[in-house]
Amino acid sequence: MLRNRMPDKYDVIVIGLGAMGSATLYQLASRGVRALGIEQFAIPHAKGSYHGYSRMIRMAYYEHKDYVPLLRQAFSLGGLNLASWRSTPSCIRMGIVRR
Asked: What is the pLDDT along the chain (99 residues), one digit of tens a residue?
């Protein structure tokens, strides 16, 4: 009888499986990297900054100009297009409101 075994070695170990850790783990695994994710709490849980029913992702950031290219790449990778995993839309793009 064959059993699925976890690898003895990993290329990458991701600590914390919140929004960023889960996205990182997904992208690594989809590229064939032997990756392990470790989370200290049960999944899902309400102890992280990502729990709840909605999120807002901005393409404009005051902190540093390097955020915008990273967000453009995230959108192009489909990482923010969760609709392919669900039967209902989960990402709605909105415009910006200017005064």
From this structure: 556 677 789 999 999 988 788 888 988 999 999 999 999 988 777 776 666 666 666 777 777 888 888 878 877 776 555 555 566 666 667 777 666
Q: Say whether pTM exceeds 0.70.
A: no
Half-sphere exposure of 62 (CA within 13 A, CB side): 0
Q: In this structure, are residues 16 and 39 in contact, taking their beta carbons and an 8 Å threshold?
A: yes
Contact 27, 79 (CB under 8 A): yes
51 Cβ contact list (under 8 Å, min separation 6) = 44, 45
Residue of 36, 38, 35 lying closest to 16 (CA atoms): 38
